[in-house]
Design a protein that fits this description.
alpha/beta; Rossmann fold; Nucleotidyltransferase, domain 5; 2 domains; 9-stranded mixed sheet; 5-stranded mixed sheet; disordered C terminus
């Protein structure tokens, strides 16, 4: 078909740009995807798009023993391409045809999970042979469930640390995984499949941002297994033992996204990220989004490209990112700061000092569960040997919030460590040091002549290694007012901001106690006015 502009009609890519390849030819004997497609078409009366059929055939690949090759399937595709319909078809097929005893649907926003569930129920009710097998439908808010006369169930669960605990599931849908900014919900819900032989977890989402901790980790793992096709940086893989390697790859990634570096007007990129283009999505609708919305939003929502920041955050856009330098080092004196997450699950130690250019360098040097490790950490030498950290002659001191914070309970313990110089962080210094840190990140916005510098040309006066936990904190921290000033709000911030608090305190401690400016008489620096 030819468009009015004289071009052939543009269709989305059937095959994802990045995916985990099959281990053997996919046939009706090696993939259950063919059965699911037949169920959709012949029973539900739904004609799936080419990309949906391709995905089902590849994602439902079987091992020789009949189990699913992929225990976890990560589907990344731009919004409005038909993810929800696909999940409804898959859930009903597994219940009615594959005897999955329990299906759990969840999302960070319960309304989203309930909407997918509601669509599946309506599909089942609309087909007499399926409707006749329905034993019960519970439409109670927060308890929605579909139960068949043969015992199969489809429940909706909240995406939190309690969701799914005590249950054993064969099929789990984790919708909008980009919104999971901690591992709590993933740990609770995904582990429901541990004892089920034919289980699968489907993580379905658009691209994420700096706060998408779970999705970023899964995507990075899959990319590394595929040879890092997008040249992702600073990705550390966990070490696998022989049993893990023998089990093969149980994580499957299927990513429809625009390739890095492409223009937002590149129509080939449109097709890469929108496999339903030409079916339910039009070029006109994509063009309208490109023209009318900020580029960052378009790249994430329409082209499934990742952002290294979040849409909001305390710092001017791009400033924190400009300070990233993984090779920079502190030279000379430095200061530590300890902070503990609001829920007391994790403690962090930040460090600050000047690099060789005199720019403030900060980073998180230790981050572990609990708090019992903090005292011994200062009493032990760094990796590679040497004197204990508390005895380093370049150490200015260690600070922590003395009152009113989770970390405050460690003050007496750290003060009792012989040779450790504790410099409590309290009172007006809480907001003062936060302001000093903020100003360094913001950078100098006026030139020497007092003229404003273009925002994109402003360079921050701080350096950091771009650590993921610190990036997330810096991108999502909320400020707590303190008079006319502010400091970081541990309780109301959507993610753990203790890493940011740790480097903020270390920076303030170093700048106040580690840099003693030379005192110069005002009479030596100014002309004397004689009356």
């Amino acid at each position: 078909m030819v468009t009015a502009a004289g071009r052939d009609k543009l269709y989305g890519c059937e095959t994802p740009r990045i995916y985990t390849p099959e281990l053997r030819p996919l046939t009706r004997q090696t993939s259950k995807g063919f059965e699911c497609i037949a169920f959709a078409e012949q029973v539900l009366g739904i004609e799936l798009f080419p990309w949906q059929k391709w995905l089902l055939i590849h994602a439902l690949e079987l091992n020789p023993d009949g189990s699913f090759r992929f225990r976890t399937v990560v589907l990344l595709v731009a919004r409005q391409n038909g993810k929800s319909t696909l999940m409804q078809v898959l859930a009903l097929w597994r219940m009615y045809m594959d005897a999955a005893k329990l299906t759990i649907g969840t999302a960070q926003n319960l309304d989203i999970a309930e909407e997918v569930w509601r669509g599946a129920v309506e599909l089942a009710e609309g087909v007499p042979e399926l409707s006749n097998e329905i034993e019960r439908i519970d439409k109670t808010n927060g308890k929605k469930a579909l139960e068949l006369s043969t015992g199969e169930r489809y429940k909706v669960q909240a995406a939190n640390r309690r969701g799914g605990r005590g249950l054993s599931a064969d099929f789990v849908i984790l919708d909008e995984l980009r919104e999971h900014s901690s591992w709590d919900a993933w740990a609770a819900i995904s582990k429901t499949t541990m004892a089920r032989f034919y289980a699968q977890v489907w993580a379905v989402s658009n691209a994420g941002d700096a706060s998408s901790i779970v999705l970023r980790f899964l995507r990075n793992m899959a990319h590394m297994a595929l040879g890092n096709p997008d040249n992702l940086e600073d990705v550390v893989l966990p070490e696998l033992d022989e049993d893990d390697e023998a089990d093969g790859d149980s994580l499957g990634l299927f990513e429809w996204s625009m390739a890095p570096g492409m223009s937002v007007w590149d129509r080939h990129g449109w097709a890469q990220a929108n496999p339903s283009l030409g079916h339910t999505i039009t070029e006109k609708s994509i063009a309208a989004a490109v023209k009318g919305e900020p580029e960052g939003i378009v790249r994430t929502e329409v082209f499934c490209q990742w952002l290294d920041t979040t849409a909001d955050g305390p710092f001017p856009p791009g400033r924190w990112e400009k300070g990233a330098d993984k090779h920079d080092l502190i030279v000379g004196k430095f200061a530590f700061c300890v902070d503990v997450s609001w829920d007391r699950t994790t403690a962090h130690i930040g460090v600050a000092g000047f690099n060789e250019k005199g720019i403030l360098r900060v980073q998180v040097v230790a981050s572990r569960s609990g708090t019992a490790w903090v005292g011994p950490w200062f009493n032990s030498p760094p990796e590679g040997g040497g004197v204990p950290r508390k005895s380093n002659p370049e150490l200015v001191g260690v600070t922590l919030q003395a009152k009113g914070a989770p970390v405050s309970s460690l003050l007496s313990e750290l003060e009792a460590i012989d040779g450790l110089n504790i410099l409590p962080w309290e009172g007006a210094d809480l907001s003062r040091w936060t302001g000093m840190f903020y100003d360094r990140v913001r950078g100098q916005e006026m030139d020497d002549d007092g003229e404003p510098i273009k925002p994109e040309d402003v360079e921050p006066l701080i350096s950091h290694p771009g650590q993921p936990l610190l990036n997330v904190a810096a991108a999502t921290a909320l400020a707590k007012p303190s008079g006319d000033a502010f400091f970081w709000d541990r309780g109301k911030s959507p993610n753990d901001v203790a890493p940011l608090v740790a480097v903020t305190g270390a920076a303030g401690c170093f700048l106040v106690y580690g840099t003693v400016p030379e005192k110069v008489s005002k009479y030596e620096s100014q002309d004397l006015l004689v009356l």
